[in-house]
Write a structure and sequence with these properties.
This protein is α+β, with helices and mostly antiparallel strands. It has a single domain, classed as Nuclear Transport Factor 2, Chain: A (Roll), CATH 3.10.450. It contains 2 helices and 8 strands. It has helices at about 1-50, 105-115, and strands spanning about 55-65, 70-75, 80-90, 95-100, 120-130, 130-140, 145-150, 160. The strands form 2 sheets. A 4-stranded antiparallel beta sheet has the order 1-2-3-4, covered by helices on one side. A 4-stranded antiparallel beta sheet has the order 5-6-7-8, with helices on one face. The longest helix has about 50 residues, at about 1-50. The chain is extended, with a radius of gyration of 23 Å.
């Protein structure tokens, strides 16, 4: 009787372990499938920027979606200057900015944190707004409201503010 109980107890542990492993594998598969479009866009935009000799390597990637989806990469060119490359969704048209002529992602984050005291910055990325390079930032405030601020890349001036959504 005792041996039978131990065997049943061992089977439960084994079944439980198998269930946990299947759940982990399933979660990893779902995450991989969900991230595939973003990874494909990252590869496409990076390859496009390198192919057009805008950068030699990419160090940062951003994706923002408002009225249009924009993908951007930041990397170095052959002269070791930091360059930002912005591409609208599936377009092959590139907008290039020299990062030294504007705000970095870290500077924009700090600007948002100091001016708006967000609970959490949910997205940040380079985009084009009214034909001007901008940083698009979305964040939740301390009351849980969604906010969208568009900062001009060159000087950090807020060119569009949508608060408390």
């Amino acid at each position: 009787m005792s041996r039978s109980r131990r065997r049943g107890h061992g089977r439960r542990w084994l079944i439980g372990l198998i269930v946990v492993l299947v759940l982990i594998a399933g979660g990893a598969t779902i995450a991989s499938i969900a991230l595939r479009p973003v990874n494909t866009a990252r590869e496409r935009v990076t390859e496009l920027a390198i192919k057009r000799n805008k950068i030699t390597s990419a160090t940062q990637f951003f994706r923002v979606s408002r009225q249009h989806t924009y993908y951007s990469v930041i990397g170095e060119n052959k002269q070791h200057q930091e360059i930002g490359v912005i591409v609208k969704d599936k377009s092959k048209k590139i907008t290039t900015v020299q990062m030294k002529n504007g705000l970095s992602a870290a500077e924009v984050r700090n600007l948002v944190k100091s001016k708006y005291q967000p609970k959490r910055i949910t997205s940040l990325g380079l985009a084009i707004y009214e034909q001007v390079p901008v940083w698009e930032v979305t964040f939740t405030d301390r009351q849980g409201n969604l906010n969208l601020i568009t900062f001009q890349f060159s000087d950090g001036k807020a060119v569009r503010t949508i608060q408390h959504l």
